[in-house]
Design brief:
2 copies of one chain form a homodimer.
Chain A: E1 8-10, E2 20-25, E3 38-53, H1 61-72, E4 74-84, H2 90-108, E5 115-122, H3 129-142, H4 147-156, E6 165-173, E7 176-185, E8 198-203, H5 209-221, E9 238-243, H6 257-279, E10 287-295, H7 298-309, H8 312-319, H9 325-334, E11 345-348, E12 351-355, E13 358-359, H10 364-371, E14 375-381, E15 387-394, H11 398-406
Parallel strand pairs in A: 4-5, 8-9, 10-14
Antiparallel strand pairs in A: 1-6, 2-3, 3-4, 3-9, 6-7, 7-8, 10-15, 11-12, 11-14, 12-13
Helix pairs in contact in A: 1-2, 2-3, 5-6, 7-9
């Protein structure tokens, strides 16, 4: 990322970019009365679209719909609902996903092939299509390019999220002011490749399909694929990026300065949104950054970082503010990656906790203080090579158990 | 396992077999006053010994000591402490592990090379050797072949365990009454290869070193390697089996009927002890059996069974008694094993929950009842081949978090 790139963060999320309008309405998919559960996003002109999806072997119906759409690279709108995942719903699920696109296309005067669909919520229940269609008509009437439209959209995609996750930046590319913004939802079932989540990003930059995909892949590798809440992937993970070209910049169709600027802005937004998912993980009280260096390979580093990030024992220690470095070292030593205790150093909040097979002489008070921070920093140097990886996660609290034990099918 | 083998379970654990005596005493390793934390086990004659150990890349000092001892195949005694794992303790740890063997050998009139050593507890603290040596002398004075000796030993190896885990069986092999018994401890940091735990098994059968190792490997593959509490392996996992030949049976030195009988008795004891570890998992309120069939390979089946068993979301659903089959199917579909939703069937407590891509028509009441059992039965048929695997685990409760967040370094 060029270090000279500057952004201004902007208030609106999916409507920060020119030409986009959005809405969010309640339509009765969620059992809670008047909870917003249907979002609609429209561009006033055709967009280049790029998407990344769950790698699970039983993807939900809307994921399959969007994969086909992203192969064509052109879209005008997105319809999304929360409260029902439309997953494990068989052929009826496929018809319902198409039905959502058709209803949105009808009410917006578009071709259904230009409408992306996303769903999140409970698995294995048929979509209440009467409610969904009514919601789409209602949302189409309320589409707004104002921040209020983006906020309503952000609200409508939430499930167990406790806060809306929205961000936008502005930067100059090709002498034009370009905006890039988005919203995401996460909370539970969060794990890399992708993090289990929905994210919708919009920009008014003009970008070719190939370069848009390239920028998105790179940004996601350094953001959404670095987060985990509980190691579980979902059927519905979807990330969509729409670029409508309304900023009027010369179209970015090759590597170079303009592409680098765009990619940097995209990575900035993705990192911030991804971290916001972890900070709002189910029951989370602390944010944890795990940096692994000195691994034999980047792959080994990722294995170690992910093993630590997904260890219930480590996450409980973080919750308790306990500098239990033994659990961290154990997890690194037991996950299959190359490991030599005599070469390993572990730092908690910058303070050496374990070095070359032995506990360090750092005072317990110092280590405890590091673990009681709101943001906990775990840095493990394996001393074996040049492999590095970073993961972001949260602690494991009683509230995570409460949320997931009391959530009833 | 031959189905005709009959066992009588017996009261004593490690002293059920002839010629073994045991003791357990408090010596101040644990901070809690008078908590038993040192166990001693002695055979009145040389034993053949077989062991299985953690596969972690930073094993504790006693594990390294015992590996060397098991290569020589001969032992007379075991000394074990709880409260301190003697792990991440560097060269001093190695000296202390040897010191425990030397102190036990001195007080029992043995060669230190005949004494196995095991430790469990906190990582990274030097062993309080003055206490340990005093405890060994005390325990040597109290060695008893009675059930009380076995019970004191079982008690002394506990950490966060809430119950002693002890079992013995008697059976006739080669016209002689043979006894086989043992004790183990587990509770947290429990995962396959091995389950993170200590287990000590004794038998008065006469068995050759090679056949003892063979029987132990087979039994552990079907027992301790099938359990998981939280997916974490420890630095100290140790399982030792001592056979002293006092039963006077013709020495088992080849495959055949006598070997099969012995192997069956050993598997029976290992399965019961392994399950008792899961039932007493930290904060556990339910026992879960996960049976995967129809996988493309046994390896795939194990991957799926383990992924389900270690999913915090599945474990929370079990805790809440919620038939959230979506989480189970998701985990199976997302763990990397071959998976086709159209061929998959999931049963909860025998009732069909999901079949070929769709929720089954079983009533929610029926499924809920299955998940509210004390023993929850999850059977997943992937419909792709002949691979099978079984895992045993427990639910994830607020108490697990409490125990592991409030445990302080």
């Amino acid at each position: 990322m060029p270090r000279t790139v500057r952004f201004r963060t902007a208030a609106a999320g999916v409507t920060a970019a020119k030409g986009f309008s959005a809405a969010g309405v309640p339509c009765g998919i969620k059992t809670k009365r008047n909870a917003p559960d249907l979002g609609l996003l429209l561009s006033d002109r055709p967009c280049v679209i790029a998407g990344l999806f769950t790698s699970i072997k039983a993807p939900a119906a809307p994921v399959q719909w969007d994969r086909a759409l992203c192969r064509r690279s052109i879209a005008r709108a997105v319809v999304v609902n929360s409260g029902n995942a439309n997953a494990c719903t068989g052929e009826r699920g496929d018809r319902d996903a198409a039905g959502m696109a058709i209803a949105a296309a009808d009410s917006l005067g578009l071709d259904p092939d230009q409408v992306a669909v996303a769903s999140t919520g409970i698995i294995g229940r048929p979509m209440p299509m009467d409610n969904v269609v009514a919601g789409i008509l209602d949302a189409a009437d309320r589409l707004s390019p104002d921040p209020a439209g983006a906020a309503a959209f952000a609200h409508a995609i939430m499930t167990t999220d406790t806060v809306e996750k929205t961000l936008a930046v502005r930067t100059v590319i090709g002498r034009r002011l370009v905006s890039l913004g988005g919203s995401c939802k996460g909370a539970g079932m969060i794990s890399p490749n992708l993090a289990t989540m929905l994210a919708f990003l919009t920009t008014d930059a003009a970008v070719s399909p190939a370069m848009l995909r390239r920028a998105l892949k790179a940004a996601v590798a350094r953001s959404f694929n670095c987060i985990t809440v509980d190691g579980d992937m979902s059927t519905n993970d979807t990330l969509l990026l729409l670029a409508n070209g309304a900023a009027g910049n010369p179209r970015i169709d090759r590597p170079g300065r303009a592409f680098d600027q765009f990619a940097a802005a995209l990575e900035f937004v993705c990192v911030r949104l991804a971290k916001s998912i972890v900070r709002d993980g189910e029951g989370a009280t602390r944010f944890v950054e795990i940096r692994v260096t000195g691994a034999r390979s980047d792959k080994d580093a990722r294995t170690v970082a992910r093993a630590i990030a997904n260890s219930p024992l480590v996450k409980c220690a973080v919750h308790g503010g306990d500098p239990n470095w033994g659990r961290i070292v154990c997890r690194a030593a037991g996950c299959g990656a190359a490991f030599d205790p005599a070469k390993t150093r572990l730092r908690l909040g910058g303070a050496l906790a374990y070095s070359r097979g032995l506990p360090a002489r750092t005072s317990l008070d110092r280590l405890q203080a590091a673990m009681k921070e709101k943001d906990v920093d775990i840095a493990l140097d394996l001393g074996l090579g040049r492999g590095t990886a970073t993961m972001w996660t949260c602690d494991l609290s009683r509230d995570y158990v409460k949320i997931n034990a009391d959530y009833h099918t």
